[in-house]
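User: Can you help me understand a structure? I only have the sequence.
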Amino acid sequence: MKLAQLSFLLPFLVVIVACQPVTDPERSAVSDTAPAPRLTISGLYDGQLLEQDRVTIQYSLAPEVEGNIAVLYIDNGDPQPLPGLAGEYEVTRMEPGVHTLKIKEMTADFIATGYFDQINFIVQ
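Assistant: Let's start by predicting it. Here is the structure, written out as tokens:
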């Protein structure tokens, strides 16, 4: 009786095992790591309190196929194209209060690619 029950379940077990995804150790190790950021801002960190009205930031952009311009926005103000895909930029004349600094990757036609980095900070 037990043998008949086991022989009945055996084909189902074979199907279940056959449907399990095959894990490739090299592929799973790569997929478990987060992709490198495409655009980074440094020299200022999120939530930082500044005692002066100026700060120098560093930025770097690994461009998308279509993207080739880094554009700075401060508090959703006017776009300020940055002078390259990486470098330093001095932000000056910041009023006291909370501010948002965002750098977006854009195409030559100023169409956003969707990649950006953003930092919120406070000027005292």
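Now, to help you interpret it: The chain has two domains: 2-32, 39-123. The mean pLDDT is 80. Let me know which part you'd like to focus on.
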